[in-house]
């Protein structure tokens, strides 16, 4: 058996893959958080709940409506995005004039209410969601077996992350978005509908979380609490990356996922906390975060 | 919280000529009520109220008077509960020494967490404290002395100063009441000290405080440690009341709960957090018997408070014509 640093290569690669998959979710979620924060100046605590809603939407679409995975991958983000838009329009938009902390507290309450409701109706235990038949099985890469679905998760999240990055950096809508981030009043005076832009941005962030949720459904079980602990790790990811840059959020997400995976191989006891330790170190050495612009 | 301050209102309401006497009378009624309460209500429930009231008041020291939103105060509350429980049960320490250890331990944790978190402001501060307290949660989950999921159980209450037997519920109640009053007095003194005034100036305008030559980070850290230590006092006492320390007290849900108590009662008011804690604990007690999950109520109350009720119960009371007439008309902040 091939060994690297005294660790069998299969174990190393296996954990690296797990890390890469976790990193995919971190990247998708921290991207959504960064996009929302950039424009709305709101830390969306409900992001974990929206991730869970995405997974539940896929599950319910399948069991109630017989909608397959591929369609759910598009429908679930749209449904959750619409839900996000309604929340933004009716409630969140009232808080922009106040201290930003109120946005955090409001979305925290929203997350508790959503998760509590789903827990009430579906219990705390997880429900399985089968991967689509096209993506079952595994391929032999020579040094390890790669379950096809897991490979798909990494690729799909990469495509979506880069797509969102492209949309923000290279398209006209993205230019409006970036301009509104810099100076919303000026952009509005040019005739751009900034309130609509804010709503769309929140919907986009919620949709991204839901997309991550659908991707996660076949890997982890669908449960009301699946987003709860994840969101705190994603917060740490966002602090490490600094929310100044979209690309920074994506890169940091993958990076910390891989670091976490490697920690599981070399020092399993610390795997739960390694992201937080890195966050503390980064804050001491570089308070603005790895990709942050200002302190 | 650092926000936009409202302009001074045009209408002025004259303070009632005997407002001071009325306030004293109200205080006397509350004191008498607290002394007599265990005759009418379940003492354990009352003690829980007092412990959480002190916890929320300690938290408010940071949010209300310094403008820092900590999302990690469960670390100090639950951490101190573990320290006290361990010292009393495993080392056979007397209760007062056990609680003191809890307070010191919480202060040390506060020093570490505060030193890291005050490097960023506002929203980042909240996220960092949350992440660090989640780290502490995982530490407690794995560390040996906390006994993981089981927690530290059947902690003896012992004899206070070797004289008072705390296993007697009534003695315990008056001990908790004394700690509660002492804690609130410390907070009151702290808030009205020159140190407290500087904290308020940091809350109002950090840049200006810096330009006046105050070492803002040091004051923030001081407030953070103070708040952590007092939260630890509440946590240590709680461990003795219920005679156990568990993971529940170090979860982020607990950090969220104390925020809700403060928000509901009134951020930046002295009595607000205590009242808020009373409402939340009573609600939980009431809902514990039904199968309706508390989190839904908690979440909805949170949303409603943030959307339309940001001054909280006591804040609204002080703001009303009645409050301004009888309580010096001090305006509270949103």
From TrEMBL, chain A:
<dbReference type="GO" id="GO:0005886">
    <property type="term" value="C:plasma membrane"/>
</dbReference>
<protein>
    <submittedName>
        <fullName>Branched-chain amino acid ABC transporter permease</fullName>
    </submittedName>
</protein>
<keyword id="KW-1133">Transmembrane helix</keyword>
<keyword id="KW-0813">Transport</keyword>
<feature type="transmembrane region" description="Helical">
    <location>
        <begin position="232"/>
        <end position="259"/>
    </location>
</feature>
<dbReference type="Pfam" id="PF02653">
    <property type="entry name" value="BPD_transp_2"/>
</dbReference>
<keyword id="KW-1003">Cell membrane</keyword>
<dbReference type="GO" id="GO:0022857">
    <property type="term" value="F:transmembrane transporter activity"/>
</dbReference>
<feature type="transmembrane region" description="Helical">
    <location>
        <begin position="100"/>
        <end position="122"/>
    </location>
</feature>
<dbReference type="InterPro" id="IPR001851">
    <property type="entry name" value="ABC_transp_permease"/>
</dbReference>
<dbReference type="InterPro" id="IPR052157">
    <property type="entry name" value="BCAA_transport_permease"/>
</dbReference>
<dbReference type="GO" id="GO:0006865">
    <property type="term" value="P:amino acid transport"/>
</dbReference>
<feature type="transmembrane region" description="Helical">
    <location>
        <begin position="20"/>
        <end position="40"/>
    </location>
</feature>
<feature type="transmembrane region" description="Helical">
    <location>
        <begin position="143"/>
        <end position="168"/>
    </location>
</feature>
<keyword id="KW-0812">Transmembrane</keyword>
<keyword id="KW-0029">Amino-acid transport</keyword>
<feature type="transmembrane region" description="Helical">
    <location>
        <begin position="196"/>
        <end position="220"/>
    </location>
</feature>
<feature type="transmembrane region" description="Helical">
    <location>
        <begin position="265"/>
        <end position="285"/>
    </location>
</feature>
<comment type="similarity">
    <text>Belongs to the binding-protein-dependent transport system permease family. LivHM subfamily.</text>
</comment>
<keyword id="KW-0472">Membrane</keyword>
<feature type="transmembrane region" description="Helical">
    <location>
        <begin position="52"/>
        <end position="80"/>
    </location>
</feature>
Automatic annotation (TrEMBL), chain B:
<dbReference type="GO" id="GO:0015658">
    <property type="term" value="F:branched-chain amino acid transmembrane transporter activity"/>
</dbReference>
<feature type="transmembrane region" description="Helical">
    <location>
        <begin position="20"/>
        <end position="37"/>
    </location>
</feature>
<feature type="transmembrane region" description="Helical">
    <location>
        <begin position="172"/>
        <end position="191"/>
    </location>
</feature>
<keyword id="KW-0472">Membrane</keyword>
<dbReference type="InterPro" id="IPR001851">
    <property type="entry name" value="ABC_transp_permease"/>
</dbReference>
<keyword id="KW-1003">Cell membrane</keyword>
<dbReference type="InterPro" id="IPR043428">
    <property type="entry name" value="LivM-like"/>
</dbReference>
<dbReference type="Pfam" id="PF02653">
    <property type="entry name" value="BPD_transp_2"/>
</dbReference>
<feature type="transmembrane region" description="Helical">
    <location>
        <begin position="292"/>
        <end position="309"/>
    </location>
</feature>
<feature type="transmembrane region" description="Helical">
    <location>
        <begin position="123"/>
        <end position="145"/>
    </location>
</feature>
<keyword id="KW-0812">Transmembrane</keyword>
<feature type="transmembrane region" description="Helical">
    <location>
        <begin position="97"/>
        <end position="116"/>
    </location>
</feature>
<dbReference type="GO" id="GO:0005886">
    <property type="term" value="C:plasma membrane"/>
</dbReference>
<keyword id="KW-1133">Transmembrane helix</keyword>
<feature type="transmembrane region" description="Helical">
    <location>
        <begin position="258"/>
        <end position="280"/>
    </location>
</feature>
<protein>
    <submittedName>
        <fullName>Branched-chain amino acid ABC transporter permease</fullName>
    </submittedName>
</protein>
<feature type="transmembrane region" description="Helical">
    <location>
        <begin position="221"/>
        <end position="246"/>
    </location>
</feature>
<feature type="transmembrane region" description="Helical">
    <location>
        <begin position="49"/>
        <end position="77"/>
    </location>
</feature>
């Amino acid at each position: 058996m091939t060994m690297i640093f005294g660790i069998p290569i299969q174990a190393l690669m296996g954990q690296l893959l797990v890390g890469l998959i976790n990193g995919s979710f971190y990247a998708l979620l921290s991207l959504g958080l960064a996009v929302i924060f950039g424009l709305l100046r709101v830390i969306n605590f409900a992001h974990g709940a929206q991730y869970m809603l995405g997974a539940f939407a896929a599950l319910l679409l399948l069991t109630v409506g017989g909608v397959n995975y591929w369609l759910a991958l598009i429908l679930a983000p749209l449904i959750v995005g619409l839900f996000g838009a309604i929340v933004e329009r009716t409630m969140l938009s009232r808080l922009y004039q106040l201290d930003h902390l109120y946005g955090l507290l409001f979305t925290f309450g929203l997350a508790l209410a959503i998760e509590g409701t789903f827990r009430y109706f579906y219990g705390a235990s997880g429900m399985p969601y089968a991967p689509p038949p096209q993506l079952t099985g595994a391929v032999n890469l020579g040094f390890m077996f790669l379950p096809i679905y897991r490979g798909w998760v990494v690729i799909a999240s990469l495509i979506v992350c880069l797509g969102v990055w492209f949309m923000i950096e290279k398209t006209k809508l993205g230019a409006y978005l970036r301009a509104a981030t810099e100076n919303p009043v000026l952009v509005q005076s040019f005739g751009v509908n900034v309130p609509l832009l804010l709503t769309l941005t929140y919907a986009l962030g919620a949709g991204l979380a839901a997309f991550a949720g659908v991707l996660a459904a076949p890997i982890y079980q669908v449960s009301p609490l699946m987003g709860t602990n994840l969101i705190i790790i994603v917060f740490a990811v966002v602090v490490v990356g600094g929310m100044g840059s979209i690309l920074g959020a994506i890169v940091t997400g993958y990076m910390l996922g891989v670091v976490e995976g490697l920690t599981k191989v070399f020092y399993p006891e610390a795997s739960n906390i390694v992201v937080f330790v890195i966050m503390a170190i980064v804050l001491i050495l570089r308070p603005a975060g790895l990709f942050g612009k200002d302190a | 919280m650092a926000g936009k301050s409202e302009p001074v209102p045009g209408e002025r309401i004259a303070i009632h000529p005997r407002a001071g006497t009325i306030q004293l009378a109200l205080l006397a009624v509350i004191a008498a009520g607290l002394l007599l309460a265990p005759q009418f209500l379940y003492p354990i429930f009352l003690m829980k109220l007092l412990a959480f009231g002190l916890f929320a008041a300690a938290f408010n020291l940071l949010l209300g008077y310094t403008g820092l939103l900590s999302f990690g105060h469960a670390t100090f509350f639950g951490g101190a509960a573990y320290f006290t429980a361990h010292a009393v049960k495993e080392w056979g320490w007397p209760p007062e020494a056990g609680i003191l250890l809890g307070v010191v331990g919480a202060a040390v944790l506060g020093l570490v967490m505060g030193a890291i978190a005050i490097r960023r402001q506002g929203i980042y501060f909240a996220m960092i404290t949350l992440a660090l307290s989640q780290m502490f949660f995982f530490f407690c989950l794995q560390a040996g002395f906390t006994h993981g999921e089981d927690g530290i159980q059947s902690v003896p209450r012992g004899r206070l100063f070797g004289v008072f037997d705390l296993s007697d519920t009534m003695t315990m109640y008056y001990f908790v009441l004394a700690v509660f009053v002492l804690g609130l007095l410390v907070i009151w003194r702290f808030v009205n000290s020159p140190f407290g005034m500087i904290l308020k100036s940091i809350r109002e305008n950090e840049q200006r405080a810096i330009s006046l030559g105050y070492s803002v980070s040091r004051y923030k850290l001081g407030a953070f440690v103070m708040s952590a230590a007092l939260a630890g006092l509440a946590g240590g006492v709680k461990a003795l009341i219920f005679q156990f320390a568990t993971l529940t007290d170090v979860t982020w849900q607990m950090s969220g709960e104390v925020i809700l108590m403060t928000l509901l009662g009134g951020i930046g008011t002295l009595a607000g957090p205590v009242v808020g804690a009373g409402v939340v604990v009573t609600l939980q007690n009431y809902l514990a018997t039904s199968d309706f999950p508390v989190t839904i109520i908690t979440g909805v109350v949170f949303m409603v408070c943030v959307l339309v009720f940001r001054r909280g119960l006591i804040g609204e009371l002080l703001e009303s014509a009645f409050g301004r007439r009888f309580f010096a008309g001090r305006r509270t902040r949103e």
